């Protein structure tokens, strides 16, 4: 089980860093890069990795996770389950970057904002029915039934100042799918360790340390300034690191890791909580991009299984991912509650069986379909899609590729305008319910497959309120069994992340691939 | 012809012919996805350690035989360059002949337009046209029409050069006595242009086309290198060089090196051929001892 190792490795490097932090070091600037910028600074508009990571430097949530993915207090100092909900004690004396005082009203406002129709956290917070503020430093979240994992669901729900939001006219989250522009998209006012200084999307985002931050002195990090410059071209990122123009590359190309190590740089790697998979639109009457009219090949379970058996996941690992991936048959990696070695096992690579299944379903001659693919989001995403074309062609599925930057790919998935698409999914709550809710449940915000299974919908609804953990585990197990059998998706692999940094930078690698600058130390 | 020229033409001509006949010459059909195996990916050239027959120049990241992919890619580059040059030539000749023969305000407007475009670098215009064409295409057609769109973009970027040459030649031709004679006999204007002016304009235009053809091939490679030309599923030389350049740090030099060498050979050969053609068309030169 790779996940336990990560925890140990991360904990080890953390301990090493704490020792280093004991030596007072001058405040430093971290210049870092990755392939694609945050999509927006509105903290509730996009539930998406790089966006959360960047906004999470400026804004804070009630509860957060440290680099070992353990829950830690942030704006709440303590929390407990009470009858019908959860009670949070808030941190006193906290101010926003604009000078406004932080209290329970801001929490109530932000949670309601994150439950608005244009928020991307709607499903995640669906169990909350009411937000109460008995006093300025207490918040009670009433839930529609007992919700044992509510704190886990709040780790990325960032808190805004209610007064600022009203003054800026951003009381509702940006409608990202329709490309709305609001004042909260390029400006930010949080309570976090870093203050936004400059924001030029896709070019430069500069942050400076918040001198009034509550956590000053409590964390090892010694950064005074952060400069983030996205670089789309992978070779450019590596060249920038080797030339000393940046201190850290979040997503170095896997094929270049040996070269980076040879140059004396630090390379850290860890299994990521992110699974890459293909979605198949089985809900539509016919596919938009197919030559099969009148019926939808993906509507047939045998076709979806055929796609799963046609993919040689080990070849993708060895030849596309440079060995850095874990082939899988599940939508969430080991380490997430509900993932087991049995349901994680990939569908066997068997092109003969795939052809037989297609013939059985009436597609002996195969069919055409377009695969929509991002080219700037996941490790080697473009190459994965290119590698899939010949594999699917071998069983008769003629795939044309549409490679697009994620800013155009994601709306396509969210608006359900795609027949066949590649997507990755992280599980910040470390619980299967999150994945089932978003990807598998009928109406899930990122379920673009149209998969709608009665029993599964029942199970998903029931597990959100089930407090008997053994019964809840049984529900999760049954749900994954149905997903495996019905195959609405073709899971490919769990991503392995690798960070490359200059030798004087100590940045603890985080399995959610988010840079946590409060832990980053730059040595003289 | 000088021996250096012969060598250069041969250097360009042989690979060019191999590219044009790629479907019959290439050992593998790299566009048939069912023939590829990912397990053959990133093999080095056959003489290097780890390389093996029949992948003489190695394979790319998708397990495509690099030699075959290059030949098909070179063919695509040559065809795009031909189409683009033909488009530029046709458009430029039309504008230039009309401007040169008509004179007056029409001449002024058309030539100022050409000059404005000439002040912009050709590749910039090509990127602009290409971007517009792609934005207007429906997403499904984007990949299928990427190659025609590239040819269109390059053609639209080099017409002013043809127009200027055509105008200069047409202005001279239009003042010849036989044109005046034709006018007196009452021939319609378009027939005079077609029958009496155009033949005199054709020779300098064709010479210019020979010079611009390799430049069009390089423009295609540039667009593809920037990711704007041929898609990775049907790579041109530029696409291959782009994909190969991402593997340079990893030590997989062959994916970028061989297509680059082929592109240089093709461009050199075409340039040498154009030079020879220009020399023959130049009356001053033939008059020399």
UniProtKB/TrEMBL annotation, chain A:
Annotated signal peptide: 1-27
Keyword set, alphabetical order: Signal, Transport
UniProt xrefs under InterPro entries: Peptide/Ni-bd, SBP_5, SBP_5_dom
GO BP terms, alphabetized: peptide transport
Residue ranges occupied by any Solute-binding protein family domain in the UniProt entry: 71-445
Listed Gene3D superfamilies: Dipeptide-binding Protein, Domain 3, Periplasmic binding protein-like II
GO cellular component: ATP-binding cassette (ABC) transporter complex; outer membrane-bounded periplasmic space
Compartments, record wording: Periplasm
Superkingdom per UniProt: Bacteria
SUPFAM superfamilies per UniProt: Periplasmic binding protein-like II (SSF53850)
GO MF terms, alphabetically ordered: peptide transmembrane transporter activity
Family: Belongs to the bacterial solute-binding protein 5 family.
Listed PANTHER family: OLIGOPEPTIDE-BINDING PROTEIN APPA, PERIPLASMIC BINDING COMPONENT OF ABC TRANSPORTER
Protein name: Peptide/nickel transport system substrate-binding protein
Organism: Albimonas pacifica
From TrEMBL, chain B:
Compartment list: Cell membrane
Pfam family, one: BPD_transp_1
GO biological process: transmembrane transport
Annotated Gene Ontology cellular component terms: plasma membrane
Membrane topology label: Multi-pass membrane protein
Keyword Transmembrane helix part of the UniProt annotation: yes
Domain ABC transmembrane type-1 stretches: 74-274
TM stretches of this protein: 76-106, 205-228, 249-270
Main location: membrane
Domain of life: Bacteria
Signal peptide (UniProt feature, chain positions): 1-18
InterPro entries according to UniProt: BP-dependent_transpt_permease, MetI-like, MetI-like_sf
Family in the record: Belongs to the binding-protein-dependent transport system permease family.
UniProt protein name: Peptide/nickel transport system permease protein
Organism: Albimonas pacifica
